[in-house]
Design a protein that fits this description.
alpha+beta; Aminopeptidase; 4 helices; globular; binds coenzyme A
Length: 174
């Protein structure tokens, strides 16, 4: 299957919305209980544009969006401005075929191009495929937080992973 990775456009948002809402309804990847509407994804798209942060989509030969990936600020305090948190979603039925990897690699390149130093991944501890995916791209587990979440009637543990994009790089003198 030939897969193109490109920047998302507003025309991709209905499919991104359906992938997102499926993850809300059926997975512990997103710790929300409520589905969102198209206006919510449009606002998110505009925020990413204002921030200069990418939303990448994986598209098959027929032009169908099979997954997407992005990053946003990790914590809203000045001192965290060189760290971002990524998110990556592959459509149900398309997982386990390398699409996550195809999205993550260029996403990390975009984080470098944005001048970021660290990419954080906050992953539900039972999400073995996401942990594996991030490990394959050089992320290490840096934190474990038992029972900080609740979904589907059970406590959820959070695993923090991170990648330092340029180990040893001196802090920028801003
Ligand atoms: C997590 C997710 C993005 C990964 O994307 P993907 O396209 O399935 O990932 P890939 O096929 O590129 O790689 C998955 C890796 O996990 C491995 N894997 C899959 N299921 C696994 C399991 N149950 N246990 C351990 N490893 C597993 C695969 O073998 C592969 O590793 P490999 O490259 O060493 O063979 C995708 O499964 C997804 O969208 N899940 C739902 C949403 C989600 O969890 N998003 C991440 C939130 S942190």
């Amino acid at each position: 299957m030939s897969i193109d990775i490109r920047d998302a456009t507003p025309a991709d948002l209905p499919t991104i919305l359906s992938i997102y809402n499926d993850a809300v309804a059926n997975t512990t990847a997103i710790w929300n209980d409520s589905q969102v509407d198209l206006a919510n994804r449009q606002a998110w798209f505009e925020l990413r544009q204002q921030q200069g942060y990418p939303i990448l989509v994986a598209v098959d030969g027929a032009g169908q969006v099979l997954g997407y990936a992005s990053f946003g600020d990790w914590r809203p305090f000045d001192g965290f401005r060189h760290s971002v948190e990524n998110s990556i979603y592959v459509r149900d039925g398309q997982r386990g075929q390398g699409l996550g990897s195809k999205l993550l690699q260029p996403l990390l390149e975009r984080a470098r191009a944005c001048g970021k130093h660290v990419v954080v991944a906050a992953i539900e501890s039972g999400n073995a495929s996401s942990i594996r995916l991030h490990q394959r791209h050089g992320f290490s587990i840096t934190g474990q937080m038992p029972q900080v979440g609740l979904k589907f009637g059970r406590w959820l543990d959070l695993t923090f992973m991170q990648l330092i994009l340029a180990p040893g790089a001196m802090p920028p003198q801003e």
